[in-house]
Amino acid sequence: MNRENKRKKYDKNYYKTHPCNVTFTCRVCGRSVVPEGAGSNHRNHCPNCLSSLHLDIEPGDRASDCGGIMDPVAVWVRKNREWAIIHRCRRCGAMSSNRVAADDNPMKMMSIALQPLCEPPFPLERIEEMTRLMGGEGSLR
Fold first, then answer.
1. What angle do CA 73, 33, 21 make, to 5 degrees?
2. Residue 5, pLDDT above cutoff 80
3. pLDDT tens digits for 86-105?
C-alpha cells in the first residue's frame, strides 16, 4: 500500500496513536524505505535523501490534500539536544519540522547543516573590511 492510500484507508488522526509500519518507495531517490531502524514508530521521511511527502497538517493527521514533495532545507537542535529536519513543500511552500531518525544519512544532515557556512550572505573577500567597520582589528592573522 502506498502513502497516498494510507490516508484514505484510515480515519483522521489514526497515525497519531498507531505505529506506521508500512514500507514505501521514496519519490525522490527511489529507494525502498522500511520502518525498521528508524528508532520510533513513525517513519515519515527517507533515511537516504531525507525527503518526505506533504501528507499531514498536524503530525499524524493525514489531513493535507497537497501531497507534494517535502525537501529537507535545514536542521535544528531541539531543547533536549535532539536534531530535527526542517522540510519545505515544493508544491505549496508549507514548512514542517520532523525529528531525525536513528538511521538517517549523517552526511546528508551535515551537508544541510553546513550549507549556510558554505554560502554566506556576503562575499568572503570583504570579511576583513566588515570586521574593521564593526570596530575590530580587521586582520585575520
1. 110
2. no
3. 999 999 999 999 889 888 99
Domain boundaries, the chain: 3-133
Q: How far is CA 19 from the centre of its chain?
A: 20
As given in the structure block, the three cell numbers for residue 23 are: 514500507
Average pLDDT over residues 123-137: 80
At residue 125's C-alpha, the angle toward residues 117 and 119, to 5°, is 25
d(CA 128, CA 140): 7
Q: Cβ neighbours of residue 97 under 8 Å, at least 6 residues apart?
A: 76, 84, 85, 86, 87
C-beta separation of 21 from 35 below 8 A: yes
Per residue, the 3-state secondary structure of 5-63, as one string, reads: HHHHHCCCCHHHHCCECCCEECCCCCCEECCCCCCCCECCCCCCCCCEECCCCCCCCCC
In 3D space, the residue among 6, 129, 103 whose CA is nearest the CA of residue 45 turns out to be 103
Q: Are 60 and 47 in contact (CB under 8 A)?
A: no
